[in-house]
Amino acid sequence: MPTDTIQYLVLDRCDPTCNMARYYVLSIEPSLFGDATLIRE
Fold first, then answer.
1. Closest Cα partner for 25 from 3, 7, 15, 40?
2. In angstroms, rounded to a whole number, what is the distance separating the alpha carbons of residues 34 and 36?
3. Per its UniProt entry, which superkingdom is the organism in (predicted)?
4. Which 3-state string (H, E, C) describes 6-26?
5. 4, 19, 20, 25: which could form a disulfide with 41 (CB 3.0–4.6 Å)?
6. Domain boundaries, given as residue ranges, for the chain
7. Would you call 34 exposed, middle or buried from its count of C-beta atoms within 10 A (0-12, 13-18, 19+)?
8. Full pLDDT tens readout for the chain, 41 residues
C-alpha cells in the first residue's frame, strides 16, 4: 500500500426524531506487520 495515499470514509447518521447525530470515520492504515488494517473511530 502506498504511504502517500490517505484512504478514509466518513459516515453520518442523523435522526432528529430521536435527537441523534452520530458520525463514524473508517480508515485503512498499515499495521505493525506491514499489512492493511481497518480503523474505526
1. 40
2. 7
3. Bacteria
4. CEEEEEEEEEHHHCEEEEEEE
5. 25
6. 7-40
7. exposed
8. 555 566 789 999 999 999 999 999 999 888 899 898 999 98
